[in-house]
Amino acid sequence: MWPLHTRPFVPRDTTDLLRFVQGCTFDDFLLTPQLGIVPSRDPAVIDLTSQFTSQIALRRPIVSANMDTITRAAMAVALAEEGGIGVIDRGFRAGDISPQIVEVTAVKRTQHGIIADPHTIDAGQRISDALQLMDRTGVGTLVVTAGDKRLAGLLTRRDVRFVSGDALVADRMTPRDLLVVHAGPISSADAERLMAERKIKKVPLVNADGTVLGLITAKDLIKHRTHPFATRDDQGRLRVAAAVGATGDYLERAVELQRAGADAIVIDIAHGHSLVMERAIEQLRKRVGSVPLVAGNIATAEGATFLLERGVDAIKVGIGPGGGCTTRLATNFGVPQVEALVRCQQAISDRVPLIADGGVKRDGAFAQALLFGSDSVMLGSAFAGTEETPGEIVLKPVVMPESQKVARVPFKVFRGMASVGAVRDRLDLEDVDPRELETLGSEGLEVSVPARGSVRTIIHDMLKHLCSAISYGGADTLQQFRKRFWSEPQRYLIRLSHASRMESFER
Ligand code: XMP
Hints:
Layout: H1 14-21, E1 29-31, E2 50-51, E3 57-58, E4 62-64, H2 73-82, E5 85-88, H3 98-108, E6 120-122, H4 127-137, E7 141-146, E8 150-156, H5 157-160, H6 169-172, E9 174-175, E10 182-183, H7 188-198, E11 202-206, E12 212-217, H8 218-226, E13 241-244, H9 250-260, E14 264-268, H10 275-287, E15 293-298, H11 301-309, E16 314-317, H12 327-331, H13 337-348, E17 354-357, H14 363-371, E18 376-379, E19 394-399, E20 406-415, H15 420-426, H16 434-438, E21 446-450, H17 455-472, H18 478-487, H19 489-492, E22 493-495, H20 498-505
Helix pairs in contact: 1-13, 2-3, 2-17, 9-10, 11-13, 14-17
This protein binds xanthosine-5'-monophosphate.
């Protein structure tokens, strides 16, 4: 006889699957290897496309968490270039919306197809004005216009080097008749051809009346080649999402985020199955109706159906599995993450994408989260300490175990968004009663993690391991892997005994 918990799983219907995973999370299962059908496990070859929202597809199903120690512009750029997406957190002071807008704008301006709104300067302005604009925007080439927005020339940093600030832009620019200019829009392939033929790096585009239509640069075209899986909008800019709350400044914040070009708005509250969330969705639909809305977090079939019925475009699943999270300790509420994903997927049946949020500590669990029902996976602590995370590096003395000598090791802070530190930083301290600060109820941890290299290395490893999992799973794309699992979960699922869990995951 098999012990009860390791008996092979034979589901009669989908409620049986739910019964099998009840009370379980990632480390409770292994998956049975199947006949491999992929010729290569190369992530460049295996299709990993999945939906982030109903409207936005990702070539790599990875989302960086909206936490103030994880996702600001640098992380969001890395995620989007690698084929995922970052969510800029809302960990800014209430009413102070511009810092979040700065982050979104920085991502949207990192790369382009055609720059539809290049920074421009009038030919009659001074070089000192041009320098100021270049410094403020970080842009090295300005499009020069004459009073009526007609293209007059281009001005680059090289043109202004060692030149008096009083000189006129018109006197230093390369005038239009010396430029290669294209009338109307142009495809990337044609732009590449034109740049090669004429040995140039920039092509201004003009409308029939000579006004500026856009600018296309070799740098952007090269970036498109370097990051073939990048998540881009229809203008070739990187995509980025941004989080708002469900009370306070959330409506103004969302309107500003939409204006800055945020590709999705994530309504992020600890308890998404709530009347507060219902009202927020209603209001946001009215104010920023055209932007995809992601809502969460929830962890039950009822919660998922509640959000589906209110018309959101993706649902974030996870109550309490997060690495920086103490909700379960503090409240005793939550659902083990595998059970939560299965419950939600059964309720939703792929009608809207699910984002598995929290608890993915090893790459095997990343593959499991996608199998057990999510379309993409949000990661926080897995990315903590990487170069792209915000925050200072602090050197801390650590005793080296081998030599017993003290070395100074670089660390970065990682903290839950409901940790005392994060909540305190979000409060407008001038308006807060000091007694309130002392009694902040924390549902999050703050820890120091060793500083490490780029998040891109971590992402590449995760993708390689996901492709290996797809191969072991007898599929040749991510979608086929999920479909095969859901049509015959009994072929895959092995629930682990204590000893087999140790054999599998303890090293
Ligand atoms: P991982 O495991 O990837 O999880 O670090 C990231 C997710 O954790 C959630 N989160 C919190 N949950 N209290 C909570 O209950 C917190 O302070 C907290 N901070 C983050 C969040 O969903 C995040 O995406």
